[in-house]
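Q: Please design a sequence for this.
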């Protein structure tokens, strides 16, 4: 997210959020599933608080600025990022929450995952309508 003064932040004059390129599907294609998860885990380690082993507000604030050049994030931006993925409501992101969040934020990867799950279910259980006759 951009700072409040940034021209890419949605405003009344410019209601569209900034566009971004979703690199996760390309990474998945190049690295495979295990490789992608490994890279997400590496990203988690770059952003986490080393003492606590999770991504905290402070570690995300500090490391997003240093590692990702996102120093213009507001405190509210950082809080929203943590809240979006914090499934256990402990105020931080563990490695699993971070990886799930990255998948959820990638529409193309989510669609591909849904297709793979559907194919696996159909392969495992077949067409239920054929069995009833």
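A: Design:
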């Amino acid at each position: 997210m951009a700072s409040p003064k940034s021209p890419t932040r949605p405003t009344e004059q410019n209601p569209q959020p900034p566009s971004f390129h979703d690199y996760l599907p390309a990474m998945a294609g190049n690295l495979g599933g295990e490789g992608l998860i490994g890279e997400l885990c590496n990203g988690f380690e770059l952003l986490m608080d080393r003492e606590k082993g999770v991504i905290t507000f402070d570690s995300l604030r500090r490391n997003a600025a240093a590692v990702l050049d996102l120093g213009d994030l507001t405190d509210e931006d950082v809080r929203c990022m943590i809240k979006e993925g914090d499934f256990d409501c402990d105020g931080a992101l563990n490695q699993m929450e971070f990886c799930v969040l990255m998948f959820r934020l990638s529409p193309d990867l989510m669609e591909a995952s849904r297709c793979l799950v559907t194919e696996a279910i159909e392969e495992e259980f077949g067409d239920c309508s054929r069995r009833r006759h």
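Q: Thanks. Anything notable?
A: The radius of gyration is 19 Å. The longest helix spans residues 24-47.
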